[in-house]
């Protein structure tokens, strides 16, 4: 599985309550490009679809880095992914043209897709390609190769994916239903759901402990869905970890 190596880590500089960040991974590609500078600001008002920058120590184990992802769900929401489609409170996510999903393209003619880079292409032969593509790229392929067959390909790998429900194994494209607790909700911690709440309980919480959620929690995804170590892997992002949100790109 190739996605875990791509983490949405950014380099940043601060000016008062405003920030500039340089993107250094493919996790939000092609909404945010490598080396792109984005403008951010501190904000207590975090909404669905906001792109946020937050501190995370998932890989560095104690040394926090700044990561950047899109907010999909907020406290009180229920999130589910079915066959790659994201639902929040049973409502299907509105299409975002820059989000990359996995597709297979087959053609009777040789496929020349010069816009595909190494991070997007999974397999390629002369007339068949499996790649991570945005809706804009799919439209371009349909225009260039009108007879080509294009189909969504789901990713059923469960490697690294959190599966908090007993007897269930969630994967990249089939995840949840997952409820995001509100402030004041009581949660019983066990071995399967510990990672979901890592931001607020750390590493030392014993199994069968009960906690009261004291801050807002967020479920985030990368726009490059198969190259993102997002909430499917690292759990909820807590309000106290958020540095700010992107205000312009």
Describe the structure in your own words.
With 249 residues, the protein is mainly beta. It has a domain at 3-84 and 177-248: Ribbon (Umud Fragment, subunit A), CATH 2.10.109.10. Helix content is 7%, strand content 36%. It is built from 3 helices and 18 strands. The strands form 4 sheets. Strands 1-2-3-18-4-5-16-17 form an 8-stranded antiparallel beta sheet. A 4-stranded antiparallel beta sheet has the order 8-7-6-13, with no helix packed on it. Strands 10-11-9-12 form a 4-stranded antiparallel beta sheet, with helices on one face. The longest helix is centred in the middle third of the chain and has 10 residues, at 135-144. The chain is globular and about 60 Å long. Mean pLDDT is 88; it is low at 1-6.
Helix content: under 10%
Written as H for each helix and E for each strand, in order along the chain, the element string is EEEEEEEEEEEHEEEHEEHEE
In CATH, the architecture of the domain at 3-84 and 177-248 is: Ribbon
- pLDDT averaged residue by residue: 88
Query: How many individual helices?
Result: 3
Strand content: 35-45%
CATH fold call of the domain at 3-84 and 177-248: Umud Fragment, subunit A
Shape type: globular
Q: What is the radius of gyration?
A: 19 Å
Physical arrangement of strands within the biggest beta sheet: 1-2-3-18-4-5-16-17
Low-confidence stretches: 1-6
CATH class category name of the domain at 3-84 and 177-248: Mainly Beta
